[in-house]
Amino acid sequence: MERVPFIAIEGPIGVGKTSLAKAISAYFSFELLKEIVDENPFLGKFYTNKEEWSFQTEMFFLCNRYKQLEDLKQHRQPAVADYHIFKSLIFARRTLKTDEFEKFSKIYDILTADMPQPNVIIYLHASLETLLKRIEIRGRAFEKNMQETYLQKLSADYGRFMSRFEAEHPNIPVLKFDCDTLDFIRHEHDLKSMLQEIALTLQKGVHTHGTS
To answer: Is 6-205 in CATH node 3.40.1160.10?
Structure first.
């Protein structure tokens, strides 16, 4: 049976996940699952006081990711998401207290037990300098309080997690793009080469509906 394409894009804050997801959605005519960020009522408070607001922040994100993926499961359309739900654990492990993380993990396991799983992962990574520049350019007010050390540790968390993910899921292709050398937002040729690599990966084992 041919698998319905489902691409998930991951990487640290500011690396360009949403921009690439929009480009992929337009190019392949895939449904776009876009993470709700600005609507999270706890996020601004989180960046000023992580200890106080981290659990509420992570639960809001987890529930919204769950709802989007539940909707996707109902109609099985080719889709691209600017997140993988596993990011909930990456952030929660970094921000929650031990007892809070244990509670969060139990809820995560219940919600994701029968989730639709991406069959292609795109991992975007970049240096701290590049991430900070891109965060500054997009100008989200609540991100002005983000500490550089938090972003640096989060990037390292992603690197470790992706290495473990590849080892545990050898049948799911992971495409890695270095966003220090690739600027697909400003340079059309960078985006084109990335889309071509994604198309080749899809053609190897996932049925697509063609490109626009």
So the answer is: no
